[in-house]
Amino acid sequence: xxDPAEMGAAHNAEYAAERPAVRTENPGxxxxxxxxxxxxxxxxxxxVPTAADGDAGLSRHRIEQAxxxxxxxAMGDSRGDENRGDGxxxxxxxxxxxxxxxxxxxxxxxxxxxxxxxxxxxxxxTWGFSAVFHLAIAAPEGDxxxxxxxxxxxxxxxxxxxxxxxxxxxxxxxxxxHPVVHVSxxxxxxxxxxxxxxxxxxxxxxxASRGGLDGARFPWGDDPHGDVSFPSPKIEPQAGGFWRxxxxxxxxxxxxxxQDGFLTTAPVRTFKPNAYGLWQTxxxxxxxxxxxxxxxxxxxxxxxxxxxxxxxxxxxxRGGSYLCHxxxxxxxxxxxxxxxTPDSSMGNAGFRxxxxxxxxRPGSGATTAANA
Length: 372
Fold this sequence. Notes:
By secondary structure, the chain is of the alpha+beta class. Helices cover 15% and strands 15% of the residues. The C terminus is likely disordered.
């Protein structure tokens, strides 16, 4: 890329003169997750409960930390893979101070400790339903509410929540080390409040996922399976090779051959970590970020520590999930972006956290969900 300092000066000048126009529509997001709860049913807004204060200041966050060094990196898609409307370009220099980030997504065990300590109820529990992929439903027929327009592989399922990822006939027995799912952005922020943490900014997330590899498609390089002799974003593993991420294999959305071993979530320490020690930043589950989402933000984002637009209606999600497939969604890349409303929950979205900074502003993931 061009000199990051020079690029940064140009971005700072533009940022000072123009604030980003906030657009909330994301044309491709619906394939990754249904957009908002009203995609299934119209309902009045509900207040979001916050974590109890019983152990305020006593962090029970036990996830191993990875350290991302202070760096300047090239943020955005430099390989021509971007999805139209997602705002993955222009590639721009970003400077960040060193920070610590969870080596894995927050697991069912981690979230259970939070719930046990606080009595917190997720939005899926208070609304009474969440979004489940049609092949993962484990519920009586009467619990299935139907599909949102344009994404027939999603169903609203009554009784689906983090303890019952497929519906009321499912549970998380044996899934203690899988990422917690059916958690909204608001739920993730409530966990952060209790843990003394915050959600990563989009820039922090991408810097951490890249593992020091500027411009690479994946945390390990350009080839999805680490084969440097034949890099291609769509090739299957070479003979004797292995999948390096949990995505869809087969014909989406009707047949998953499970070549990677999984129909839905995988344990958080499956496959290999990147050079910074982060596991599965791409594939497995989407991860909520602190930022409001705007497709035009990269044009005007500041060079130093960008934190997203000041307002919006949808929050950034990163990393793709076990439902990503080349035929319709190649968002399992370092630069890929998506978004959803802060109250949305679904069976392929979770989160990881970063250390809280003294200047974390409201809406950054360090505030209570009720006030975000």
